[in-house]
Amino acid sequence: MKELEKAVVNAVSGPIKEKALTAFGEQIEEWGLVMPEVEPLVLDFGLGDFEHIGLIEYWIANEIEAGYCGKYLFLFDGQRCPAHKHALKHETFFVVKGAVKMTTDGEDHTLGMGDVLVMPPDRLHTFAGEGNSLILEVSMPCLVTDNYFENQTTQNWLESSAPSP
């Protein structure tokens, strides 16, 4: 099973997804941007509170054999990605639009448009939109099994996407 297919298993669907994508599309249009022709993932990380904990991901590339991944991450104002880390993945975040509060191992960083933050493996991190925000993540390949969430409910949600033995 490809990594994107594993991620899609737990994506939000129905009215919440449609409302989120409509609001997202309006913001992207207001900014004068165009997104890639890929199906976006609307994620609430199994917590059922997309308005506060979640994001929209656009997977541009996840080239495991070539060793790279590129994603757009969109957060609505005040929305947060839960605290997590990766054993293998090294990430670089670039703020395209808006501002983001990044917390790394308990240390806060406010990033604005054009700012970059490098996230080495094994660093606990979370981030929240300060206003609607768009981040470009350039990283090592995304492997669903290389995400370790601080919140056990979210970790269980993630593991439910793993294929059965």
Walk me through what this model shows.
The chain has 165 residues and is of the alpha+beta class. It has three helices and eleven strands, in the order ααβββββββββββα. It has one domain (3-159): Sandwich (Jelly Rolls). Strand 2 (55-63) and strand 3 (68-75) form a beta hairpin.
Topology:
Blueprint: H1 3-9, H2 14-31, E1 41-43, E2 55-63, E3 68-75, E4 80-85, E5 91-97, E6 100-104, E7 107-111, E8 116-119, E9 125-129, E10 133-139, E11 148-149, H3 152-159
Antiparallel strand pairs: 1-2, 2-3, 3-10, 4-9, 4-11, 5-8, 5-10, 6-7, 6-9
Structure in a nutshell:
The protein has 165 residues and is of the alpha+beta class.
What strand line-up does the widest sheet have? Answer: 1-2-3-10-5-8
The CATH architecture: Sandwich
Helix proportion? 10-25%
Query: Element order, helices and strands?
Result: HHEEEEEEEEEEEH
Estimated share of beta-strand residues: 35-45%
Number of domains: 1
Q: Give the CATH level 1 class.
A: Mainly Beta
Output the CATH topology.
Jelly Rolls
From the spread of the alpha carbons, the general shape counts as: globular
Rg over CA atoms = 15 Å
Number of helices: 3
Largest sheet: 6 strands, antiparallel
State the total count of DSSP E strands. Answer: 11
Low-confidence stretches: none
Descriptors for this entry?
165 residues, alpha+beta, Jelly Rolls, six-stranded antiparallel sheet, 3 helices, 11 strands, 37% strand
